[in-house]
Amino acid sequence: MAGGAESLRALLRAANALLQKRRYHAALAVIKGFRNGAVYGAKIRAPHALVMTFLFKSGSLREKLKSIAQATYAHSRNLAYFVFTYKGLLAAQSRLQGKKIPFHSFLAACIGGWLVFGDNNPINSQIIMYLLSRILFGLSRLAVEKGYIPQPKQDPFPLVAALVWGTVLWLFEYHRETLQPSLQSSMTYLYEDSEVWHDLSDFLIYNRRTDSK
């Protein structure tokens, strides 16, 4: 028993010593990136899938739990693969050229995005749309910072909010099929289901009646 504990401590010391070696830093960063991608993907997707599934999806409890598990696994796996691919390609380019330049990041991410997120499915679609909105904000701020567009005299956010909500509700009312399915479900719940009721039960307590009255 004591010998086993000592062997384990020796193994831990060897592992910790390996982690401190700078020559392995790039390879170890790729492995930890895979780990962090998997964990973060699960943390982000699990609560979102839980809420959306129980709010909008029908089916048995088993089917709902299976759907949550599948969505969480897909998000976690894809993010882990992407981080692994991105950091691996970044390290390879830096090693080949002897230094890191900004284009390395762009090229590595483009390849990773194509390989990992290129499949047009609901999970990937949500991730890409999430990133796209932040890219537009980021590029706008960068354009002001670099002087490509003048600094606004007033905060433009109220105008952006008005245009975003005006456009999305117009699309929902007249071109609904162009919107992502989960957004359609959310807006149906908010703007259409609120138009229908029969008595106090489905006016205040439930969204829809479940009986045949």
TrEMBL record:
Lineage of origin: Eukaryota, Metazoa, Chordata, Craniata, Vertebrata
InterPro entries, per the entry: Pmp4
GO cellular component assignments: peroxisomal membrane
Gene: Pxmp4
Organism in which the protein naturally occurs: Chaetorhynchus papuensis (pygmy drongo)
Protein name in the entry: PXMP4 protein
